[in-house]
Fold these 3 entries.
Entry 1:
Amino acid sequence: MSGDISFDHIYDQLLPSVYRYVSARIPRNDTEDVTAEILAKVWRAYPHYQGRSSLKTWALRIAARHIADYYRALKRTLPVLPWEPAAEAEHDHSDNCLDLLSIGQALSQCSAEQVSAIQLRLVEGYSAVETAEILHMSPAGVDSLLYRAKQKFRTSYRAETTGGVSHV
């Protein structure tokens, strides 16, 4: 691949995906800085991009490694951050907020890899092959991970929404 690409092009094309990926894994006060660091890494590494996967998949693989390095440097484990509702004016969204809190709590019971599989496959819509490239595993491994993640989420969500009582 040619290295003749501008940082603005990389930024415009990849910012939404990289930011969403980072914001689900990094504390809010570091999200913008980490996203900027990742985009700079992608731009610097672009001359080595060989086109074997989509640019977005390649960038998210770089993001996954960078986030792992971020937590290694802090000597912390990868936390699961609860998703937050978007603010909308003049509506009572208390039920929506409770649902989102329950979802966030259920996700916090899943492993970081399970949350990644859920986000990439179900939220972002990546294929099993693309998700496997990002997470450095086989497509069959991704399917297995996603299956276990959905089971864990379902069990945790039911317990959360029924006050800790499982109706299995």
Note: Confidence is low (pLDDT under 50) at residues 85-89.
Entry 2:
Amino acid sequence: MSLVSVLYLIFLGMVLLVYYALPQKARPYLLLLSSWAFYAINQGYYLFVLLLSISINYLLCRGWAKHGNRAWVAVSILFNLALLSFFKYLPAIFGFTSLPDGSLLQQIAIPIGLSFFSFQAMGYMLDLHWSGKRQVASMAQYSLFMSFFPQLLAGPIARGKSFIPQVSKASCFNYADMVSGSRRILWGLFKKVVIASNLSPYTDVVFQNYNDHQGITIALAAIAYFIQIYMDFSAYSDIAIGSARLFGYRLMENFRVPLSAKSVTDFWRRWHISLSSWVRDYLFLPLQYQTRAWGKAGLTTATMITFLVIGVWHGANWTLVIFGVLHGIASTWESHSKELRAKLWQSLPKRIGNVLSNLIVFLFIAASAILLRSASIGEAIAIISRIAGSSPLYLGSKQLLVFAISGMLLVFGIDTFKGDIPIDEYIGKQPKALRWALYICLIIALPLIGSLSSENFIYYQY
């Protein structure tokens, strides 16, 4: 049940109606049962993996609260890493996917959302440990935190200290939340079906047949794929945040106009914020503290390990390791060359310096996105090497590209004006006539130049 399907909108509407018809105390339990039903519809018997993760992690949290022994924290982290390794890394490392068709080991699939709810579990335990408080949420509250259906499959990665208090405050119906949530869902649907889905056929054809293309076609496909990922993933986050808002819950913002970043470090402050802030708080800062006596070498070590984890988090493929290493190197260079770069940009007019820095970061990210798309390092090298060649420009379906570009111009234009303000707040501040004109345009565009289908989001694979 994709979040861009009519089935999801029906499911969301039915849960919403029952939710506000129930007494406040019963509402979290409805959300919990609905979340498990939602996951079962998408993943079938893999629901047991989610339930196992909830049960074991909760017991470990209770054990820590009772005994206060650091061993409980270690076991929790090891358990979640083992769960991730079994489903996500061992099949690739030991070549289970190359076994004969139908073999039991080959049938091991990665449960959707595994990386997201595993990181939530580890974050909750570490927050408990570092706070020193022996108070653990109830089993129902913790279970909903781990399996809340709007963000279960692809985030944003929730934090227990911000999510669980909302469960205990079972909110009343709020008209402002309904309007804000609906705006956010509509905006997410537009980005997914009008932009990402219309770019997908073009990037698929070029990358699946890269031997037939060279030069500007490969470069254009790499840029298009980066924009496709952004529109696709931010669309999921918008729909998730909007859906949660309908129930009175507020999830973390996951994107803050990342295409405006003027450095790789700034890009990661704006891109997939729930993941980048998670690794910053639970990995980078502790590593930086432990290696503070090493000076710049300590900062470099902490940075490279952090970005290596970001790369590996995306999957068990050497292309993803290289992706993390490249971003780690870029971020390290930026941290060690602040004075040099400041002098360079000061020698240029401010506007030109901003445009150049933004363009350099954009092209670097687009080039590195080829690693996310490639099945192997050899394939990535082959694709990149063909950029230097020359062949006629391939555009595929010009109609689909016109649709996608039209949508991009709208999104990029609004992003430019709104800055870091969430899109639902920005739209809410506009004159009534302009708001309704935008609503009508978005609603008309969905069936005319897009389609509500069951097409999955790119980040489901992570």
Note: Residues 96-107 have pLDDT under 50 and may be disordered.
Entry 3:
Amino acid sequence: MNTALALIFLTVAVSYGWGMRGDLLGHGKGAVVPGLLLGLGMVLLTGDAKLLRCAWIPAAFGAVGMFPGGGMTYGETIGLVLHRSAPARGRTGLAFKGFLWFFCAAGLVCFGIRLVSLRCYSLADTLLLFAAVCLARPVGMRLFNRPGGLRFSPTRQESWGENLLILLVLACVFAVHGDWFSLIAASVAGLGGALGWLAGITLFDLTWRGLWLKKLTRAGFCDGWKIMEFSIGALGGLCSGLGLLAASALFPDALSGGWFASADGLSAYIPQTLSLILGLVWCALLPLHALFTELTRKKPWGERVEDWLLDVLYCAVPLLLLGLGSVHTALFYAIPVCFYVLAEEVFLDKRTSLPARIVLAAVSALLTAAAAALSTALPKLACVLVCTAVYVGFELALALRDRDRTRPGLRALGARFSVDLFFLVTSAVSIALWAAAA
């Protein structure tokens, strides 16, 4: 394993993933892509051949860890900086949210790495984290989202309390077990998320005021918002890798002599047959959530319940199944579910007919069945390809569909030309780096 290549992969791939999150999906579902790439990159950086064989599990932990951050509102916080209404408060809020986001993501990747490689964590730890994720949104909103409290958005509800509670529980689990390796790695990753937001909002602000890339902005080829997102992902990914290296240097025995129940990294809690059944049941619940959303969208309580169910289905439930040792859940999250959330966003909206939803659910079921049949024989490169090539393909198709036909040549694409060019380059680089370093 080449450490430099793995670090570059983390920087480039997470930068790409964060940008793609903001372009196609957004919110928690969009965070699945950079989360998977973060998990894969951190496993690659360990240089452990056994961990790499079961990289599906830490990668899925990365998706689980990134997901709750997608619920944090930050548009109005950015506005505090751009419109000069409260720039210091805005920057503080963005750095704070960035720290929460990347600490939780990298922390859960480390939890996954230690879970499959060492007898470091028990079933009780997994159950505790599962309960924390289930309760984090309602409790966090009640405790911290109050008028006059620590708020960074003038009118919108703050949900960073959810991520703060997950961080506190995760940090306590690390401390109780003396897992300073994971605590240090997650803290440095969180610092990277904070620095990423500060760098990103600074570049966005310079672009917004015409002090940087002025000609490109005037020509319509520059998108300050995307520059901000690319910067967040790059620094967050880089510092997640640096945190892992720092923790490994301080605790060189943390990942050596690990215990593996099997070549796939399965724990002793459940057999593979049960792992497959539980993973299939979880996948079946996801289209049902889309149907529930359609049926309750006019209810006054519909949005609150929908957001909570999203956290439970895409974060808490897979976290529990992964903790039980379900490699199938990890495999499904990395390929069919990663595809499903994209297809649901692109092809479906609240006005789409029920038959269309059934067709999408059927396609997702076929992909899940194929992944189950191939099981862990699938190369990890397949996950990288879904996160990059598949997503970029959809992005380019949508860019061509939505182009401004009144403008000639590349001007018809506007800022999407430079953004999509970045996606193409970074996705190709990510695939090449993974193939070279894995």
Note: The CA atoms of residues 6 and 45 lie 5 Å apart.
